Amino acid sequence: MVTMFDEEAVRSRSHGLRPEILAAQAERLGLTQFVGRATWQTYSDVFQRVLHDVAASGVTHVIFGDIMFDEHRMWAERMCEGSGLTAVEPLWGESTDALFDEWIASGADAMIVTARAQYLDESWLGRRLDAAMAEEFVRLGVDKCGERGEYHTVVTNAPVFSHPLTVRHGDIVQHGGCWALDLDVT
Question: Does the predicted TM-score (pTM) go above 0.90?
Answer without folding.
Answer: yes
